[in-house]
Amino acid sequence: MHGRSRALPIAVRWSMALCLGLAISSMMAGAQTLEISAAQVSGAGWTAQRLRATLTTSAQGDQLSLAAGVVQAGKRKLWQRARLRCKLDTAQGWACRQGFLAVEGSPWGALHGDGHVQLRQVGGSAQAMLALRAAQFGSARVQVQSTAAGQWRLTGAGSLPVAGLVHAFTLLPATWQTSGQARWQVRARGASWAKARQIVFALQGGQLQFSSPDGLQAAQGVALQLQGDGVYTGQWHGTARMRWTQGGILWSPWYWTAPAAPVRVQTRWQQTAKSWQLDQGSIRWPGLGQGGFALNWPTQGGVLRWRIRDMDVAMAPLYANWIKPLAPPGGPAAQLQAAGQVHFSVAGEGGLSALKWDLRNAAISSPGGQLAVTGVHSRGAWSRTGKTSDAMLRWQSAELYHIPVGPLRAELVLNPQGFQLQQPFTLALLGGELHFRHLAARWAGPRSGFSMRGDLRGVSMAQLTRIMHWPPFIGTASATIPELQYHAGDITTSGVLAAQVFGGEVRVGDLHIENFFGVLPLLRANIGIAGLRLKPLTDAFHFGYISGVLNGDVKNLTLLNWSPEAFQAQFHTVPVHGVSQKISYAAVQSLTRLGGGNGISGFFQGMFLRMFKTFAYAHLGMGVHLKGGVAELSGVATEDSGFVILQGQGLPRVDIVGYNRRVDWDELLARLKTAMHSGAQVGTGE
Question: Is residue 673 classed as helix, strand or coil in its secondary structure?
């Protein structure tokens, strides 16, 4: 029999013809072979080509051979060619025992297995049972019961290698290595012999593993349980539940391990003609938090849309396991630790599109003490395509490089690209205040970062120098902060930072700090000093009394980890009307040591100079050129082979001349420390 079938009833008639042939063959003496074939049989959503059934009878028993060419469900080919040979038993219905199956071109590749099929009629119902076992496919046992009206029920169970499952459904790229075993169960029912109406399924995998060729994606020892159900009412919809109980997953840059209690995910799902939809989903991750989600996954092209809503999450694991891996290694964000609780909702469509948050009682700190913020509260909402919105940020206390900062409350305006201040605010800082006139941030584009302008008022130099372990200063400092910008760990200024200290002004230009929050911050700048009063400065350093006005500059200053690496510095006094230029005996001693001498020598000369409290001078100054750990010294003039640090005036006249022009930088610092802490000594300085 040859022909072409276009509808399910023809397929049924083809099966009936086969059964009739089997019955006739059992009654006809001498009949050896019966063959039935069809070029094509099709039904609702499926097509089978080149079908052939062959029955061979002999004294040893009946042998049945079934063959099929391409079998296709929808647009997916189930196999290219399949053959089944078995021993036929018709004692109770029809049973195909001791069968051998060979399949080519299946999603699992080439299959070779064994099994059996049994068909029988019980009352008004027909029953079919299939058992199959193949190395690539695993094992399966399926039983189907159908009524004369076409109502049917199916139950099945089995196990299969994960590698075959992954390959069959293209869950991972073909070049990845996979292993593990999965057990499955399914129950289904339908009508008209072909249309499924309801399905219940369960899948359990153990010791699941995969790895990509580059090792950036991998899993080991993973155990998952998936359960669900579906109903067809014009389109498929149902529920699904998943539990992750064991193992670890690397999906660079993230790595997650299963917590002690299972991670639980459940959702409603729906399949439409254009997409898979997950809705009313929920996730519970012990130790991290819980919340809801939704997902729309287009099946015919388009943009993935997702939403995570009403998540309550602990900041410590959220930052450590989800945010920190995104930070550049060694950068400031990679060093931070977080605490507290955050409630948030976030949505994406081809990228992050909306965010709403409420951060409560949080804290941020770095192990090295560069940053510490406590009592952080913040709330706000942001949209990539929406208009501006309001946000709030406040903290109880903060420290930056161990410098304490007072409480903060800032009101912000958010836009799709960043934020800016609603109005200026002020922070308490070292007995003074830091006033922000402008603060803005941008998180999109090549110049992402933040910028600020402000003023520093009345900051205690004593507190600052004590915290920074600098020589002690007294008094207060004020400064005007120009446009200061932060980007990718670097700080730059578009103007000159001017500070008023010791009656004069210090101007810092060309400021550039690289890796500000990192392990080895690098600072570059040029500094100018004008009108600095020496008396309060030398009083602060216990250097000895010096009066006068100092000018100078530090060019090409380079600090590595806040320690000097290179600079060219020159300082000198300038005559100012009404300001005397005098120096004490103790200061003469200090300058002599700084220049490389051992103090004023000679008993009678020392005794003579001690009779005077101060000495007048005409010029005072010193230059230092630091490079490669060696400082080259200079003064206000040269004399013979030396350099003049102090040029005296009047009687008695005191000149200080240094002769050691090159000195190790650490040695120069030691001289400065000695000069600041030693009392007056008798000596000549030569």
Answer: helix
Whether 527 has a pLDDT exceeding 50, the answer reads yes
Task: Please confirm whether the linkage preceding 652 is cis (ω < 30° from 0).
Answer: yes
Instruction: Give yes or no for a contact between 393 and 410, defined as CB atoms under 8 angstroms apart.
Output: yes
Give the chain's mean pLDDT. Answer: 83
Alpha helices, DSSP H only, in 270-429?
315-318, 332-335
Residue entry with tokens 């359990």:
204
Count Cβ neighbours within 10 Å for each residue of 603-639 and write b for 16 or more, e otherwise. eeebeebeeeebbebebbbbbbbbeeeebebbbbeee
At 169, the amino acid letter reads: F
Q: How far apart are CA 547 and CA 502, in angstroms?
A: 12
12-26, 315-329, 516-530: which has the minimum mean pLDDT?
12-26
- Name the nearest CA neighbour of 655 among 679, 619, 682: 619
From first CA to last CA, the distance across the chain in angstroms is 125
Helix (H, G, I), strand (E, B) or coil at 163: helix
Nearest in space to 544 (alpha carbons), one of 439, 655, 418, 681? 681
In angstroms, the CA 647 to CA 635 distance is: 10
The secondary structure of 314-326 as a DSSP string is: EHHHHIIIIIGGG
- How many Å separate Cα 29 from the centre of its chain? 79
pLDDT tens readout for residues 280-332: 999 999 999 999 999 998 887 788 899 999 999 999 999 999 999 988 777 77
**The amino acid at 523:** L
| Nearest in space to 645 (alpha carbons), one of 619, 606, 683 | 619
87/628 Cα distance (integer angstroms): 92
Helix (H) or strand (E) run with residue 592 in it: helix 585-594
Selection from 264, 257, 259 nearest residue 218 by Cα? 257
247 phi-psi bin (left φ>0, alpha ψ -120 to 50, beta other): left
Whether the CB-CB separation of 480 and 497 falls below 8 Å is answered with yes
Q: How far is it, in rounded angstroms, from Cα 427 to Cα 414?
A: 22
pLDDT exceeds cutoff 50 at 2: no
Q: What is the pLDDT of residue 472?
A: 67
d(CA 660, CA 87): 109
Dihedral-angle region of residue 650 (phi above 0 means left; psi in -120 to 50 means alpha; beta otherwise): left
Q: Which residues pair with 399 in a beta bridge?
A: 372, 404
Q: Give dist(CA 94, CA 470) in Å, integer.
A: 98
Please count the other Cβ atoms lying within 10 Å of the Cβ belonging to residue 318: 20
Query: Could you tell me if 323 and 336 are in contact, meaning their C-beta atoms sit under 8 angstroms apart?
Result: no
Q: CA angle at residue 369 from 364 to 374, to 5 degrees?
A: 30
Q: What is the pLDDT of residue 174?
A: 83
Write the single-letter amino acid at 518. Answer: G
Retrieve residue 657's tokens: 């001349």
Structure tokens at 143: 């039983």
Contact 314, 300 (CB under 8 A): no
Identify whether the C-beta of residue 315 lies closer than 8 Å to the C-beta of residue 341: yes
Torsion of CA 555, 560, 564, 567, to 10 degrees: -20
Nearest by Cα to 294 from 319, 271, 267: 267
**Do 395 and 373 meet the contact criterion of CB atoms below 8 Å apart?**
yes
Spatial CB neighbours of 480, under 8 Å, sequence gap ≥ 6? 455, 456, 497, 498
